[in-house]
Design a protein that fits this description.
Radius of gyration: 17 Å
Helix content: 10-25%
Largest sheet: 5 strands, mixed
Distance between the termini: 25 Å
Number of domains: 1
CATH superfamily: Histone acetyl transferase 1 (HAT1), N-terminal domain
Order of helices and strands: HHHEHEEHEEEEEE
CATH topology: Histone Acetyltransferase, domain 1
Strand content: 25-35%
CATH architecture: Alpha-Beta Complex
């Protein structure tokens, strides 16, 4: 997994030596391209009705998530990005099972925060956060 190899190169060696290899791989690195689901909605009530039967994934996400196009530190992330068809107003729903704290393991500039990463990229929009129960 090339993304994991690049990530491990950036980790603090003193902290890594305390972990075995199997635990290190459990940093939870997910493909941003596969984690983002895009759809268009028709305005109706509080939640729009999806236009497409199946959402689609972006071709690339490096402008948001870096050259590796990876989401690090979140177990099973799912990002639903919908646009209202009539005015393209976005709606963003972010779900994950668990957030893994990476303080001391990765440099601050390599750590990601899903609740703020879209600020400045998307116009102000409805943001929903959901963590899996028991996660």
């Amino acid at each position: 997994m090339p993304a994991m190899d690049k990530l491990l190169e950036q980790c603090n060696p003193a902290v890594l030596s305390a972990f075995d290899t199997e635990l290190t791989v459990d940093l939870d690195v997910s493909s941003a391209n596969e984690s983002i689901h895009i759809n268009f909605t028709r305005p109706s009530g509080t939640h729009g009705k999806p236009i497409l039967d199946e959402p689609f994934h972006p071709t690339f996400t490096y402008p948001i998530f870096g050259d590796e196009e990876s989401i690090v530190g979140y177990k099973k992330p799912r990002i639903d990005l919908s646009f209202r068809a009539n005015d393209l107003k976005p709606s963003l729903r972010i779900q994950f099972q668990e957030e893994i704290k990476l303080d001391g393991l990765l440099p601050k500039d390599k750590q990601q925060n899903l609740d703020t990463i879209f600020q400045g990229i998307l116009p102000p929009c409805k943001l929903l956060f959901w963590r899996c129960p028991g996660g």
